[in-house]
Design goal:
By secondary structure, the chain is mainly α. Helices cover 86% and strands 0% of the residues. It is built from 3 helices and no strands. The chain has helices spanning 3-25, 28-45, 52-77. α1 (3-25) runs parallel beside α3. It is elongated and about 40 Å long. It starts with a helix and ends with a helix. The chain crosses the membrane at residues 6-22, 29-46, 52-69. It comes from Lysinibacillus zambalensis. Keywords: Membrane, Transmembrane, Transmembrane helix. This is DUF2198 family protein.
């Protein structure tokens, strides 16, 4: 996979993982820890070659955590 494809996956996939794990565990902190563990496993396996991917992953995790907290607030107001 080329660098552009890795950057696009790094932009969307971690945020989606945090949202998915939040829906499964009902806890956004556990979801964030699980997503970080998966990202760490991919780094250890060597799937993230350019260092800009780390920055994009961190940004996407932050956005996913923010969206999960928004989702949690909206669900409690219903």
């Amino acid at each position: 996979m080329d660098v552009f494809g890795k950057m696009m996956l790094a932009l969307f996939l971690p945020a989606l993982l945090v949202l998915l794990f939040t829906r499964i565990t009902y806890n956004r902190y556990v979801a964030l820890i699980l997503a970080i563990a998966l990202m760490a496993a991919s780094v250890y396996a060597g799937y993230t070659s350019p260092s800009i991917i780390f920055v994009i992953d961190a940004f996407s995790l932050t956005v996913g955590f923010w969206l999960a907290s928004k989702m949690k607030k909206n669900k409690s107001t219903l």
